[in-house]
Amino acid sequence: MGLRFVFVQKDPISNLATMCLSAVLKEEGHDTHVLIDPAEPDIVRSIRRYDPDVVCFSATTGQHVWQLAVARAVKERFGPIVLMGGPHPTFYPKVLEENAAVDFICMGEGEDCIVELARALESGTDPSSIPNLGWRDDDGTPVYNPLRGLEQEPDQWPFPDRSCYDHYDFVKKRRTVSVMSARGCPYKCTFCFNVTMQEMYRGKGKYVRQKSVDYMIAELKDVLARYPWVRQLGFADDIFVLNFRKWGKPFLKRYAEEIGLPFSCLLRPDLVTKEMVQDLKAANCKLIKIGLESGVEDLRVGVLKKGRLDNDGMRIAGQLIKEAGIKLYTFNIVGIPGETVDMAFETADLNIAMGADHAWASICQPYPGTTLESWSIENGYLGDDGGDKDFQYSYFIDTPLQIERKEELCNMQKLLPVLVSYPWLRPVVRKAIAMPANPAFELIFKAHYAAGLVKTGQIDLNDMMRLIPLTANYWTDRGGTLDPGTM
Fold first, then answer.
1. How many other β-carbons are positioned within 10 Å of the β-carbon of residue 232?
2. What are the tens digits of pLDDT across the range 257-311?
3. What's the CA gap between 270 and 43, in Å, rounded?
4. Are the beta carbons of 300 and 259 closer than 8 angstroms?
5. What's the Cα-to-Cα distance from 149 to each of 112, 200, 202, rounded to whole Å?
6. What kind of fold does domain 173-486 have according to CATH?
């Protein structure tokens, strides 16, 4: 007969993790549904109306505060089982013992865990031995089970279930959709969750796993058959074509012949070669996103461990992309421990030198479980407990790091993208960042951010118009992110 699962989220875009979990649950005969907060008049009533057996949250640190509030409300109102997965419970499993409204957490990859939990709940059997599961014993004491080995053959998974979003036209009718060809990243950037995940899964299988070329082409054909209005694809892999010779070249050749749509992808600057960008261009790549992070080598390489490429090498990578006729979108971090205001301007200068078409900027966040968090504690930039355990900061608003001239750096984060687009504004930006933080800076940042998504082709105007009514909170409070890595 199957159980009823409802996945609840805040952002009005599709979530690849949710689609993957929905796919494996449907294979087992369960029913799944997605509810998006801004599209519902009352999210708790909408959940109640669906009458789920299990309410699921894919929690990122920061948004977990809102998710826990919803969990408490549904638990008080009608008492469904609440399951929380995603990065936050993976790296901060104590969320289970600190929140009675959460019945189970899933740590790490969730497909097998959620299927086995569903089987146990449906049959009334004991779920306590399920790997990756956090649960409570008879005394209410939290128990955290060890992780299972990583699935080494991603072709074993069904295609992500995009139909779970089809009742929302603003998702279903989008002309740009995200896909993933691989999971995992082998690098060790201190601010990234992948370093911790690599350690958690040490000895449990290869961490980076690539779908086969045949599988990926079949998945893309399936997407286009179901949604023929799609006009662009976005590869959300941590690093696209990581194995360029063995996988990238044959895939791009097949893609050009059998798919052909414009696409975007994420690359590391130290992997960029002329041959690679030429092959990407020939396959109709229109946009490459790169983690620039900082224009100061000591911060980028020394603190963030973002490769070993010097600024000259970064400039060459940008020039290769631009010379191939591909647009460049960069990710930047302001407020890195040890950064000065002048250093933040060096980051803007490197963006300009690389020819960035849009510079995305966040404020440095030492997320729980990351190497940057422990490094920041050891070097006096965070309290011994890692700062506010609720971590309500948005990476567009503030940081728990104890850094000098924090307010100026937070202002600089909001104005850096504008400075990269309009370098002649440098004297104005210099004066503006010395002013008290104010809503005008947030408005400028968000408006420029939205314009950048359109300019770089990550969203078209029709899609933007559908999303605007659902993103009011992005303009009036601190609830939204719309991460361009997954747009």
1. 19
2. 999 999 999 999 999 999 999 999 999 999 999 999 999 999 999 999 998 899 9
3. 44
4. no
5. 10, 10, 9
6. pyruvate-formate lyase- activating enzyme (3.80.30)
Per-position DSSP letters for 417-464, written without gaps between them: HHHHH-GGGHHHHHHHTTSPP-HHHHHHHHHHHHHHHHHTTSS-HHHH
Cα(238)–Cα(182) distance, rounded to whole angstroms?
8
Which fold is adopted by the domain 4-144? Rossmann fold (3.40.50)
User: 462 is written with which tokens?
Assistant: 């029709």
Return all residues near 95 (Cβ < 8 A) that are at least 6 apart. 59, 64, 68, 84, 88, 89, 102, 105
Of 19, 27, 25, 24, nearest to 5 by C-alpha is 25
Give, rounded to a whole angstrom, the gap between the first and last alpha carbons of the chain. Answer: 35
> For 56-86, what is each residue's pLDDT tens digit?
999 988 888 899 999 999 999 999 999 999 9
Q: Residue 172 burial by CB count (10 A; 0-12/13-18/19+): exposed, middle or buried?
A: middle
Count of CB atoms situated within 10 Å of the CB of 205: 12
- What the block records as the tokens of 436 is 């008290």
Integer-rounded Cα radius of gyration of the chain: 22
Number of H helices, E strands in the chain: 20, 15
Fill in the amino acid letter for 303: V
Q: DSSP class of residue 160?
A: P
Residue from 265, 276, 263 nearest 320 by CA: 276
For 201, which DSSP code?
A: T
Phi/psi at 256 (5° precision): -60, -40
Cross-strand partners of 234: 178, 264
Domain boundaries, the chain: 4-144, 173-486
Nearest-angstrom CA–CA distance, 374 and 199: 15
- What the block records as the tokens of 69 is 């509030």
- pTM for the model: 0.92
Query: Residues of 371-409 as b/e, b for ≥16 C-beta within 10 angstroms?
Result: bbbebbbeeebbeeebbeeebebbbbbbbbbebebeebb
Angstrom distances, CA of residue 475 to CA of 360, 453, 457:
17, 16, 22
Q: How far apart are CA 316 and CA 455, in angstroms?
A: 23
